[in-house]
From TrEMBL:
It comes from Letharia lupina. Pfam families: Gaa1. PANTHER family: GLYCOSYLPHOSPHATIDYLINOSITOL ANCHOR ATTACHMENT 1 PROTEIN. GO terms for cellular component: GPI-anchor transamidase complex. Keywords: Membrane, Transmembrane, Transmembrane helix. GO terms for biological process: attachment of GPI anchor to protein. The chain crosses the membrane at residues 20-41, 364-384, 430-452, 458-481, 556-575, 595-615. This is Glycosylphosphatidylinositol:protein transamidase, GAA1 component.
Length: 616
């Protein structure tokens, strides 16, 4: 048997060690936040670059323009003439335009139901078969009839139709080109890409009569302006925080700003002077969008299928015309046409802070991991603390029977009694803490179900009622538990330990999938680490259960950072309508497969509930 130094054994049993974990947890949180704030600096971020050599962005001469301006104007006039007509007339006219360009059109109907609202429409598309290809790969050009703001995408649709006619004249294509006009910017693209990959529900979404090969890339045109534009706003956020390959974004930026001299912006940062504040603001805006996980444009529906996609949105009032935007799309398609295999060289996990500056996952991931690991540190400390016996008692106050099982220690003229070595680890009563943690995590399905299946009109009142119930629910639950099974100090420690362990495990796993959501939930949950009396190493009831003053302060902090209150605060700060926000979440769940609300109600809210029970 290996020899263990008595000094190490004494250090292991030193109760002062259990006072260290709260400070380590606080240090992890502090370092994680500071780490995030350092990312915009030049020392921690990098210039963007093209990893896939075959793309050759901006290396070809673009010819879109001249007489194509007249074609575009004619298509735009026909689209304006369709305003106010029924959907059948619109889709038939679009089909006629495709046929006039010697392209075979196809149509697809769809209908979704979410939050008491029906989302129905029809997609019209045509496939330009590659003269030099074998129909095994395809590139998609998308223009939604209405954009994300609900405005008619008149110039975008007209430009897509003009490009379809223009592309038909060229024989250089090695990949099929699919021109897709969707009924809207959210349900339409999702219905089409689901049906393309045979993942649709046939009762709501019709199958596609025409298909091509594997989709290699998607470019969406969004130009609802009736005048010249100033710059291109590139939207790249996908559903559930997924992102397209960075090479596609870099290709668009290189062509727009380098080859064509068009300004590029992202995350609605219209003016960017490359200062630290603007870099940080751009990065945080991207993190908020990624954390929410909602669809930011028609391109978002393609990314979950590992199809890299971006949206080019014309913004501002400048001197760039639609022909410049068309040349940008032409050059991007020429680069995508060069691809020998699917995008894989560059990053899929990154944070952009400017059009030409980013940080990769290896640089930013420690920030969220440090926040997540603070819960694990406290969970381990509470677990060790739960197995320790109570503090030594004075010998004169103990019965003789108990003294025979204890070790008598003389110190400073006082006789104290401590447990013998074989009794220093108490048996942990795990059933109640484990059952309570598991039950509350399953209980999160109730608000998840209610807010997903309620109608748009009843969602605000349902959420208001839930917010008020949430104020008293921890107290009611704590009272009910104590009435049937009184919580011992060990129960209290084990309950907090297991809850923090589960929370830390979930957040650490989530950080590799959706860094921003993991970081935000972790920061909002940090008070859970310090509920109770974390700075004490004693397991006596007076040291485990919080004092009245600490109980009131902890309750106030937890209530202010509860999931419902945070949702109210976010809607107030952004000026968003609560009903619309909840309806968007319900739509995202039923149509796009959004799982942000699963993390909120089945991970964050149960952990918050357990924290509320512990301070009552």
């Amino acid at each position: 048997m290996a020899f263990i130094s008595p000094t190490i054994l004494a250090l292991r049993r030193d109760p002062r060690l259990l006072k260290l974990p709260p400070y380590l947890s606080a240090l992890c949180i502090f370092i994680g936040v500071v780490w995030l704030c350092l990312l915009p600096l030049n020392e921690y971020s990098r210039h963007t670059y093209i990893s896939e050599n075959a793309l050759l962005p901006g290396q070809v001469h673009t010819y879109f323009g001249g007489s194509e301006q007249n074609v575009f104007n004619a298509y735009k006039y026909e689209i304006q003439a369709l305003v106010g007509k029924d959907q059948k007339a619109i889709y038939e006219k679009l089909s006629d335009i495709f046929e006039s360009a010697n392209l075979r059109p196809a149509r697809q109907k769809y209908e979704y139901h979410a939050a008491g609202t029906t989302y129905s429409g029809e997609n019209v598309y045509a496939i330009l078969h590659a003269p030099r290809g074998d129909a095994t790969e395809a590139i998609v050009l998308v223009a939604a009839w209405t954009n994300m703001d609900g405005d008619l995408n008149q110039s975008g649709v007209a430009l897509a139709l003009a490009l379809a006619r223009y592309f038909k004249r060229w024989s250089l294509w090695s990949k099929d080109i699919i021109i897709l006009i969707t009924g809207d910017s959210r349900a339409g693209p999702q219905a089409w890409v689901d049906a393309y990959h045979d993942e649709h529900t046939s009762f709501f979404v019709a199958p596609l009569p025409l298909k091509s090969g594997a989709l290699q890339g998607v470019v969406v045109i969004d130009n609802a302006l009736d005048h010249r534009f100033e710059s291109l706003h590139i939207v790249y956020d996908g559903i559930n925080g997924q992102l397209p390959n960075l090479d596609l974004f870099n290709t668009a930026v290189s062509i727009a700003s380098g080859q064509l001299g068009i300004g590029v912006s992202l995350q609605r940062m219209w003016k960017h002077n490359d200062s630290y504040q603007e870099r940080l603001q751009t990065m945080l805006r991207g993190m908020v969008s990624q954390g929410l996980g909602y669809s930011s444009g028609p391109h978002s529906s393609f990314i979950p299928y590992h199809v890299d996609a971006i949206t080019l949105q014309a913004v501002g009032d400048g001197w760039q015309d639609e022909m410049a935007m068309g040349r940008c799309v032409e050059s991007i398609f020429r680069s995508l046409n060069n691809l020998l295999e699917h995008f894989h060289q560059s990053f899929f996990f990154y944070l952009l802070m400017q059009a030409d500056r980013f940080v990769s996952i290896g640089t930013y991931l420690p920030s969220a991991m440090l926040v997540a690991v603070n819960f694990t540190i406290m969970a381990i400390a509470l677990w060790i603390r739960s197995g320790r016996p109570p503090a030594p008692k004075v010998a004169s106050t103990m019965p003789e029977k108990e003294k025979t099982e204890m070790e008598i220690v003389q110190k400073d003229g006082m006789t104290a009694i401590t447990p013998k070595e074989n009794l220093t680890i108490l048996e942990r009563q795990l059933f109640l803490p484990v059952a309570l943690v598991v039950s509350l995590h399953f209980l999160g399905v109730i608000p998840l179900y209610v807010f997903i299946n309620s109608s748009r009109n009843t969602l605000p009142s349902c959420f208001l009622l839930f917010t008020f119930l949430n104020l008293i629910l921890p107290t009611v639950l704590a009272t009910s538990i104590r009435r049937h099974t009184p919580l011992t100090p060990q129960h209290h420690l084990l309950l907090q330990s297991i809850s923090l362990l589960v929370l830390g495990m979930f957040l650490a796993t989530l950080a590799t999938l959706n860094f921003s959501l993991s970081l935000f939930i972790g920061l909002l949950s940090t008070p859970l680490t310090f509920t109770g009396n974390p700075f004490s190493s004693s397991v006596d009831a007076k040291d485990v259960f919080p004092s009245n003053a600490r109980k009131y302060i902890s309750t106030l902090v937890l209530q202010l950072l509860s999931p419902p209150v945070v949702v109210w605060a976010v809607c107030y700060i952004w000026g968003a309508d609560l009903g619309e926000t909840l309806a968007e979440a319900a739509f995202g769940w039923k149509v796009n497969g959004l799982w942000t609300q699963v993390v909120v109600w089945c991970v964050w809210w149960p952990a918050w509930m357990i924290g509320g029970v512990l301070v009552n």
